[in-house]
Amino acid sequence: IETGIKTLIEKKMYSGLVRPVFVEPGYPGRINMHDNILESWYFAIWSYNGWTQVNNPGYPGDGNTYQDKVIRYVKSYRANMEGVPRDLFTEELPPAGKTFHLPGKNEGGLTPLGPGAKARVVNASQLNVREKPGTVAPSGNEGGWQGWAAATYKYDANRLLFVDYLIKEKSFSGIEWPSQVNITDYRKVWNVRFNRRVDRSSINSGSIYVIDGNGRGVDVKVTVGDTDNTVQVVPQVDYRFGETYYLYITENVRSLDGKNLTRPVRMKFTVKPPL
Question: Which helix (H) or strand (E) holds 267?
Answer without folding.
Answer: strand 265-271
